[in-house]
């Protein structure tokens, strides 16, 4: 009896000492989360509550890491414990085709498997495709990788097309749910969405991750994120520091190990949004503004830069890159970026040392040879980022601290076209007002930006797609506005000063300035009045009717709008001619510029926008198709268009 009492007392003490404190923090975290929900963002206690919630969440995360479920292990026939360290879905390039694999990293072996197809109700199992003992695993050097087969990259426009299809299906699912549609119809749509998302997951990765077995066999995975590649490489290299022995698994041992994978796995579902529960967060849609301030903690001087990644459609994509800060231990970038979010939930920051040694540069365009100095990730909590104010934070990585600030703008807010209060500048001012003031056919800002891009940016990879530094774009915006506002006065900036500034500026900032100019027009370049007609015209199935309609719509544009549009059109065609080098096809350029040139102003757009998550809504798809139609059309002459106006009007 006394022994039972002692045991009960011990259990109570263990509960009080170990479980209760954790339980208290868990409950406090939930309370803090609810408090934040009901506290106005401008309340003085709001930032304090944010900090308290972040500290609580970080504490619980560290506890969860210490009680990692991966400690569950399988025992080898020799009685040794083989623990699962990491697992996840990766795309393998096998016999020239892409295959989705589930890869398992154990303490002494890397195993690549695929899930067997089983009948409904049957226990699912994995089929081992290959394994490499860590003692035999090596990573090929950049020089050795040169002899490996080149990775076939899927054209961007095909990936963007698929994103459009997925978003269109998402919209249909939401409409069916709102109208309480039949569950069968919803399930059919979800099945189609899964098929499309699976295709995207399989075909989007392009960063090679090569693994070589000392016995001669090599394997190639394709990843979408350098962060992910670094995680796998570091996990393997950490295990290889131990005294590992080479071995060969017997068929029975391999069967036991493969059989344990289903029970031990920590990643259960393919990372596609159609696998999410309805109550899971859909992520953020809109624009994330990030300022990368500085970094410290480097032990020696280096040439340093950062890249930013966010998740989109189930995988991570690199969205922005700072300048290289040369020969320093404390880089001060202070660069701002605007990153479009498409259902994003996480932001990753990677810090690199730039490689200038030409002998180490790999011929494979997708091979990143710069050294990762550190990497970190934060969750994009909608409650924390959806404020008007900047939120400053620090990511710690391998002893390095990167300081950054961020704020979020919802898609609804970012879509607004707001006329400028000062009509003396060029941004937010009607194009007819600007051309009349300048006595020009095409606004000066459009001519100069295009000229600079064609001079030194037409072969830049991702020109118009990659974000420019926001602070540089704002500086150019201010100069062009000032030039227009002080025209003819003693304060008017010399054209030479602007040209010198343009020649010194990063080319992506100049491309970004041009996009911003069109985005901030008080009404789109192709006008609010004609927007419904453009939507109807592009939907016509008869080629002759479509040609007549689309040309008539161009004739209907005011002269400054039409001349500027044709000027831009020919420029974009010249950019696309360099697609083998800059990776920007006509379709890519239509995707970037279509919504910018056609999206109606706020008063006209009511009824066009549906859900915030409809990044690729039906309207956006149509806007892209309109511009693509004109980009694929033979050269269009302003003179010829105007000459045919009378004939066309008579026919109608």
TrEMBL record:
GO process annotations (BP): signal transduction
Rho-GAP domain residues: 429-638
GO CC annotation, single: dendritic spine
PH domain mapped to chain residues: 83-241
Localization of this protein: Cell projection, Axon; Cell projection, Dendritic spine
InterPro entries: Abr/Bcr (IPR037769), ABR_PH (IPR037865), C2_dom (IPR000008), C2_domain_sf (IPR035892), DBL_dom_sf (IPR035899), DH_dom (IPR000219), PH-like_dom_sf (IPR011993), PH_domain (IPR001849)
Molecular functions per Gene Ontology: GTPase activator activity; guanyl-nucleotide exchange factor activity
C2 domain: residues covered: 266-395
Residue ranges annotated for the DH domain, each copy included: 17-66
Keyword match Transmembrane: no
Alphabetized UniProt keyword annotations: Cell projection, GTPase activation, Guanine-nucleotide releasing factor, Synapse
Coarse class of the protein's main subcellular location: other
Keyword check for Acyltransferase: no
Name this protein carries in UniProt: Active breakpoint cluster region-related protein
Annotated source species: Gallus gallus (Chicken)
